[in-house]
Structure formats: C-alpha cells, structure tokens
Amino acid sequence: MTKLDSFHLGELYRELRVARGLKMKDVVSDKLSQAQLSKFENGQTMLSADKLLTAISAIHMSFAEFEHAYYQYEDSSFFKQAKLISKYHSNKNIEGLEKLLIIHDNNSETYDVYDKLNKLVIRCAIHDLNPEYIISDDDKDFITTYLYSIEEWTEYELYIFGNTLQVLSDSDLIFLSKSFIERDSLYLSIPNNNFRTQLVVLNIIFVLLERKKDYCVHYFMKHLESILTYQDMFVKTVLIFLKKVLNYREGKGTHLIDLKKYIHDVEELGHEDVAEFLKDNIVNLL
C-alpha cells in the first residue's frame, strides 16, 4: 500500500476528525480558524507546521499516531528497513543483510550523508556477525564525525549510534556514550524512544564488557538501573501470570502451588514490587 500524497492529507484529517465524532467547531480555536481548517480538509491549502500540530492535538491524537495513519498504518520505509536489519541480525542471516545492502544501493537515488549512514548500519550488522567483513577507519570516522556534529540528537541519531557503536574506538565509544547519557532525558520522555534508549545503554554495556573496560561498566549499569521501572517488564510478567491463572481456573494442569511459585520466582529475580502486586491481586482472580 503506497503512502498518501500531500493533497490527500486534509482529506485524511477530515476522516479522522469525523470518526471521532468531532465537528469543525470542536476543533477550531484562536490558533486555527474554521476557514483555514475547511480549506485544508478540502485539499485547497496546506497548514503551516504549528497549525497542523494544533489541528492534530485538537482531535486527541499524537503526531506519531497521525503520521502512522498517514502511512496507512504501515511503517515508513526507514522503519521497515530497520526492522529487517534487526530481524536478519538476530537470526544471524548474513545473506539477508547482504541482499538488503544490494537493494539499498539499487534503490538509492542520492548519495548523501544519510544515505551513507543508513548503508553503514547494514554493514555494521554484517561486521558484527562476521568480523572479517571490514569497516574501514574512514567509515568509522564518518560515523563519529556525524555524531559529534549533531548537538541535539533525535530518534535518528539514537538509531545510528545504537547500531554502529560496536565499531567505534574505545575513546569515541566512551565519550559519545557519556554524552548520550547526560542528555537522555529528552529520549526518555517519549515512550518509543524510552525503550530504544534502554536498549542502547544495554548495548553499550555489552560492548564495554566484551572489550574488558570494566572500569566504565559500573557507571552505565548504575544509570540503566536508575531509568528502569517495574513497568518495563510489568506487562509481560503479569500476562504470563494471568495465563497461569486462566489455566488454573480451567483445570489445565496449573495448581495453586504453581501460581505461588511463580510469584516467588519473580521476587527472587529482584522484582519485589511486581511480586507484591501479584500477591495483592491473586485472591480476586481465583
């Protein structure tokens, strides 16, 4: 399914507004007039960035949700490629990554900084699986020069750093990692980036341990621990528990002792708060 073109942006907005049972008068404000909104929805004009954000907020959607609808509830090409890289890497599928590299070269219309960085992410994934696949010093310098040049990292820089840090020199890795940690409050405030931030810090720790840089590891471990909450594993842990409860109620081989053991195991793993939550709720579920 192809992305909607700009002309239909207003039409999409109208569909989303109507679907939420909102009339134009419910959306307009001193920042967005009814005339401006009407022309936008009819495809006659585009809204400026600030007015578009106002309009999206008025129908109780986030910009990310609106963007997802704009792409007809599919990931953008960038995130599709990112997911493929992750899939091939986790499956140790070097051939898949090499094919992805060829596809990227064939579909690339420009040779700019971002094109080269996106290509290097694929190449770094191959290198991680096959160390004989060389990432040149020039390529490493290209990555670090770019990352050092961007004062305020966005989701894109987070993605580039997280997927290329394994090829950086010790000094660049440590410096960029500490700089990243110092400003990660920006990413932690955004749910999707919050999870990515945790993964990046985890990757930093993995690489530093592999390189025997133990003197740095404690700093990053302590920081990662400070930004994690019980909610990060909460949903998965509780879901497993609820499945066990359902099996118990349906007589499918799970016994009360199994439920209590699960809670005990969760507590033993250090998730005392989650275990306490399960204890508080088990009586109401049985």
TrEMBL record:
Pfam families on file: Rgg_C (PF21259)
GO MF assignments: DNA binding
Stretches of the chain forming a coiled coil according to its record: none
The species this protein was found in: Streptococcus mutans serotype c (strain ATCC 700610 / UA159)
Occurrences of domain HTH cro/C1-type (ranges): 32-66
Name of the protein: Transcriptional regulator MutR
Taxonomic placement: Bacteria, Bacillati, Bacillota, Bacilli, Lactobacillales
NCBIfam families according to UniProt: RGG_Cterm
Top-level taxon in the UniProt lineage: Bacteria
InterPro entries linked to this entry: Cro/C1-type_HTH, HTH-type_regulator_Rgg, Lambda_DNA-bd_dom_sf, Transcription_activator_Rgg_C
Gene encoding the protein: mutR
